[in-house]
Design a protein that fits this description.
11 helices, six-stranded mixed sheet, six-stranded antiparallel sheet, globular
C-alpha cells in the first residue's frame, strides 16, 4: 500500500479501463507527489490526463485495470463474447453484477457500458436557452468539437460511403478515429429493403450525429482502418505518455482518498491510498463512501467513520437497460459460423492479423435505429417527456448478425432504453474496498421505462415482420 500526495487537485473518473500505460506498478513511479491525480483511466480520465498534462502541471493517471498492450484493440471480440453466451463476464470486464431485480423475477444483471448518439437539436436548443439565442446546431457542433476529438476515417474495405453519412458534421483532424463498417454483413441488404418497404416506421436518416437522429441509419463506430480506436490509441498514446510531466500507472487500485488537513473548517483531501491490485470502483460513489464521504448513517453501518455528510453520494444511479430477442435464421455467413467453427475463426483472425480486413475489422451490425414512444401514448397523461424534446430518441435498436446460443444460425434484435426515469443506488456491502458494492439500478421501476421498453420491443417485432425478412427469419428462440 502506498500514499500518493498531490499539491493541487484530484479527479475521480471511475470508468472502464482503456489506456496505454507507462508503469505496471505504483512501486515504479518516479515520485509520490503530483499536482493532479486522476483516478480512472477510461475515456474521461484519459482525455483529462492528456489535456491537463499539456500545461506545466505534473499529472498522474491511476488505472486499476491492466495495460492494453497485447490486447486485441478491435471491436469484434466483445461481440463474439456476447454470441458465445459469456459476455459481459469476460477477462477485460469488471464482472459487476446488480442485486436481484424484482421486475426481472429477482434475477441479477451484469452491468456493462454502451454508447449514445451525439446530442441532437433538442438538447442543443436547451443549451441555447442557457447561453443565448441565435445559435445553429452546426455552429454549436463546431464550437464544441473544434476538430479536437473526432477524426473521420474511411472504412478499411474502402467501400463507397456516399449517402451513408454527412461529412459536414464530422471532423477529419481530431484524435479518435470514427468510421463506418468495414465489412458487409449478410443482413445489410435486408435492412435496406426494410427501410424501403416500411418508410413510415423506419425512415432513413443520413447521419444520426447531424442533429436529427430519429430513424434508421448506418452505424458509426470508433475504429481506425480495421482496428479499434480508443483512449489507449489516441489520448494516451506513446506520443503523449512520453511527456515528462505525465505518468500513467495500471494494475493499481485507489482504495480511498485521504484527509490531510482542514481548510476553512472543512476536511481537506490531499492524498490517495493506492495498492498494487486491479479491480473496479463502480463510478465515483464507492470510492467516496470508502473515504468517509456520504450519508453518515450508512457509513457507520459498515464501520466507516463519516468525515463529510453528503447523503446523495450513491443515490440517483441510473443505467440503460437492454432487451434482446433472438430468432432462428436460415443459413448464411453469420457471427455464429465464426464462433462455432475453429477453422473459420482462425481463417478470419489470420486475415485480420495480416491486413486488418474481414469480419474482425467490424462489429456484428452495420445499422442502428433510434425511436420514440408515440405522441398518442396515454403514458403522456401522467409523465413528462424525459428526453430533451420530440426530436430525441427514447430507445435505440440494433439488428445483430448472430445469437448467444451454441450451434445454429441466428438473428438478434437488441433494444436499448436511453432515457430511463428509474433511479437506483450504489452502496457499500462492507468496508473492504475489494468487496463488490451493492448495485441496485431498480431497472424498469418507473412505469414510463416499462412502457418505453415495451414499445421498443414491439418496434423490433415490426421490423422483423417486414417482407424483407420472409424466408430468412424463421421463429423466435423459445
Amino acid at each position: 500500500m502506498k500514499l500518493l500526495l498531490l499539491f493541487a487537485y484530484w479527479f475521480l473518473i471511475a470508468t472502464s479501463p482503456s489506456l496505454a500505460a507507462l508503469f505496471e506498478s505504483i512501486d515504479h513511479l518516479p515520485t509520490d507527489r503530483y499536482d493532479i491525480i486522476i483516478v480512472g483511466g477510461g475515456a474521461a480520465g484519459s482525455v483529462l490526463g492528456n489535456r491537463l498534462s499539456a500545461s506545466r502541471w505534473r499529472v498522474l493517471v491511476i488505472e486499476s485495470g491492466p495495460s492494453s498492450r497485447g490486447v486485441l484493440e478491435q471491436p469484434l471480440r466483445p461481440v463474439l463474447g456476447f454470441f458465445s453466451g459469456n459476455s459481459p463476464l469476460v477477462p477485460y470486464d469488471w464482472n459487476s453484477t446488480s442485486v436481484p431485480q424484482p421486475i426481472l423475477g429477482n434475477r441479477t444483471v451484469c452491468i456493462t457500458h454502451v454508447a449514445r448518439p451525439r446530442t441532437g437539436t433538442d438538447l442543443q436548443a436547451s443549451w441555447v436557452m442557457l447561453v443565448g439565442r441565435g445559435m445553429q446546431f452546426s455552429r454549436t457542433y463546431e464550437g464544441l468539437n473544434a476538430g479536437q476529438n473526432e477524426r473521420w476515417t474511411p472504412p478499411v474495405d474502402n467501400s463507397n460511403t456516399s449517402g451513408r453519412f454527412n461529412p459536414a458534421f464530422h471532423s477529419t483532424t481530431g484524435m479518435n478515429a470514427v468510421s463506418l463498417a468495414g465489412w458487409p454483413q449478410g443482413l445489410d441488404p435486408r435492412v435496406v429493403q426494410t427501410m424501403n418497404q416500411l418508410p413510415q416506421q423506419f425512415p432513413f436518416v443520413l447521419d444520426y450525429n447531424a442533429g436529427n437522429p430519429l430513424g434508421l441509419g448506418y452505424l458509426q463506430m470508433t475504429v481506425d482502418r480495421g482496428r479499434r480506436s480508443s483512449a489507449a490509441t489516441s489520448y494516451l498514446s506513446p506520443l503523449f505518455t512520453s511527456r515528462p510531466n505525465l505518468d500513467v500507472v495500471v494494475n493499481s487500485r485507489v482504495v480511498r482518498i485521504v484527509q490531510t488537513g482542514v481548510v476553512g473548517g472543512r476536511p481537506h483531501f490531499g492524498a490517495v491510498e493506492v495498492v498494487n491490485r486491479n479491480g473496479r470502483v463502480i463510478g465515483t460513489p464507492q470510492l467516496l463512501l470508502l473515504s468517509g464521504i456520504g450519508d453518515a448513517t450508512d457509513l457507520r453501518r459498515v464501520g466507516i467513520p463519516p468525515l463529510v455528510q453528503l447523503q446523495d453520494v450513491g443515490r440517483n444511479f441510473h443505467d440503460d437497460p437492454l432487451i434482446t430477442i433472438t430468432y432462428h435464421a436460415t443459413a448464411g455467413l453469420t457471427m455464429d459460423d465464426i464462433k462455432n467453427s475453429p477453422a473459420i475463426y482462425n481463417h478470419f483472425m489470420s486475415e485480420w492479423s495480416r491486413t486488418n480486413t474481414g469480419p474482425f475489422a467490424a462489429i456484428s451490425n452495420s445499422f442502428i435505429n433510434w425511436g420514440r414512444v408515440p405522441d398518442s401514448s396515454p403514458i403522456w397523461n401522467t409523465f413528462r417527456d424525459p428526453a430533451a424534446g420530440r426530436n430525441t430518441p427514447h430507445y435505440g435498436q440494433y439488428p445483430l448478425n448472430g445469437g448467444p446460443y451454441p450451434g445454429g444460425q441466428y438473428l438478434t434484435m437488441l433494444s436499448l432504453l436511453v432515457t430511463p426515469i428509474s433511479r437506483g443506488t450504489v452502496s457499500l456491502r462492507t468496508s473492504n474496498p475489494f468487496d463488490q458494492p451493492l448495485i441496485d439500478p431498480r431497472y424498469l421501476s418507473s412505469k414510463f421505462d416499462l412502457v418505453a421498453m415495451i414499445e421498443a420491443v414491439r418496434n423490433s417485432q415490426r421490423f422483423i415482420a417486414a417482407p424483407a425478412w420472409r424466408g430468412y427469419v424463421l421463429r423466435p428462440v423459445a
